[in-house]
Amino acid sequence: MKPKNVNYSNQRVGIFVDVQNLYHSAKNLYHGRVNYAELIKTLVGDRQLIRSVAYVVKSEGVEPQRGDDGRREHGRNPEQHPAGALSSEAAFFDALEKAGLELRVKDLQIYAGGFKKADWDVGMAVDAIRMASFLDAIILVTGDGDFIPLVNYLKWGMGRLVEVAAFRRSTSSRLQEVADKFINIEEIPKIIIKK
């Protein structure tokens, strides 16, 4: 039996956002984009946010400043990005940071024949497992059923509360079932910003 609502103010929360999954769901289902600041605020509630990480893929040739671990460093080099000259992708990345998300950036992989690959599944899973030791609740913001083994490991192998937040219509039904709590972000007021 799943706990009904196990949110306590002393819970330490980590949020891991599969940006590609959320971006495409919002675009295809609602012809809009996600209000990430509202999303984070709603998911955390009155609990203690320890880390919130967004996993993004860089595709336009934008060169955000990054540390050795792939995390984007705050601040921009004015020579690279003069005021007002940010690409739409760089502006999106800045908006994510302003919403309180720490960015993990990866380049889009383009293979011979034009095949493109852009996912952070393994990186997101490793980060969630690595940080689970100092978190009480882990919130995965994705509808991707590939995360089912991660949810099961965090719950049963590490004893953590695992919540999944995503658009119900584009979320694996099995992922919704295995999570301790599923948050249908379609029901969060002000979550969709129409283009």
Q: How would you describe this structure to a colleague?
A:
With 195 residues, the chain is of the alpha/beta class. The protein has a single domain, classed as 5'-nuclease (Rossmann fold), CATH 3.40.50. 30% of the residues lie in helices and 25% in strands. It contains six helices and ten strands; from the N terminus they run βαβαβαβββαβαβαββ. It has helices spanning 19-30, 36-44, 88-98, 121-131, 148-157, 173-178; strands spanning 12-18, 32-34, 48-58, 102-107, 109-110, 116-117, 137-141, 161-166, 181-184, 192-194. It has a six-stranded parallel beta sheet with strand order 4-3-1-7-8-9, with helices on both faces. Helix 3 links the parallel strand 3 and strand 4. The longest helix is centred in the N-terminal third of the chain and has 12 residues, at 19-30. It is globular, with a radius of gyration of 17 Å. 29% of the residues are buried. Mean pLDDT is 85; it is low at 62-66 and 73-83.
Number of helices: 6
Shape: globular
Name the helicity range. Answer: 25-40%
State Rg: 17 Å
Q: Encode the helix/strand succession as letters.
A: EHEHEHEEEHEHEHEE
Count every beta strand, where a strand is a DSSP E run of 2 or more residues: 10
From the coordinates shown, what is the CATH architecture? 3-Layer(aba) Sandwich
- Return the CATH class: Alpha Beta
Structural class: alpha/beta
CATH superfamily: 5'-nuclease
Distance between the termini: 41 Å
- Count of spatially separate domains: 1
